[in-house]
Amino acid sequence: MSSFREQGNEHFKAGDYKGAEELYSQAIAEHSRSDPKVFANRALTRLKLQDWQGAESDARKAIELYGPKNNQAAMKSHYYLAQALLPQRHVGEALEEAKTAYAICLETRDSSAELISQFILKAKQAQWQAKETARLRQLNETLALVEDLLDQQLQRDIDAVEERYKKGDIGETGKREEIDDLQKEAESRRSIIRKAFQDPANPDSVERVSCACV
To answer: Is residue 125 part of a domain?
Structure first.
């Protein structure tokens, strides 16, 4: 009679990932709590099911059980951990785990090296994107603050004109003309500031910033 792990392997090969996960869980519960292979297999199965946290937990457990002396055997678990971390936006750690797996591949001449190198490139792109998103968010917040200060100044200037109108220092026409000039000047300043905040390499950066923070 085949073991739960072997049955799980068969279900996995057949594409029945949910069934495979259940069988691996049974194997762990009954007699494989210290078998890193079962945890590694369930980690891969959970990756297929897009259970990122479950896959992360299993991959970490497999690495722990393999121990520092079994790096070659733990290579796949490091890679599984990297794959589980990236969708959770733990980009830095995902990249480090992938690099660990890649280093083991090079050391052991494992054929997975090329596949993992592609993942490393993907993780680096995600890392750059995360930094760029943070930069744009900060840019957007700063621009919003400056524009808010401009609006406050405009309102103070308009209030001053209204006060002069109430005192009779200027007439209705003069009031409208001064307010119109103030609004035009404020819009001109706003335009200058937005241009100053644009990325020279990307003229649409100000518009992109707004979208990134929705």
So the answer is: no
Closest CA to 54 of 103, 20, 100: 20
Q: Are residues 12 and 72 in the same domain?
A: yes
Q: In the beta sheet, which residues pair with residue 202?
A: 199
pTM score: 0.65
Which range of residues forms the domain containing residue 105? Answer: 4-110
| Helix (H) / strand (E) containing 187 | helix 172-197
Place of tokens 């070659």: 72
Token code pair at residue 103: 């280093």
* Residue predicted with more confidence, 203 or 137: 137
SS3 15: coil
Domain stops at, among 46, 75, 110 = 110
Average pLDDT of the residues in 11-34: 93
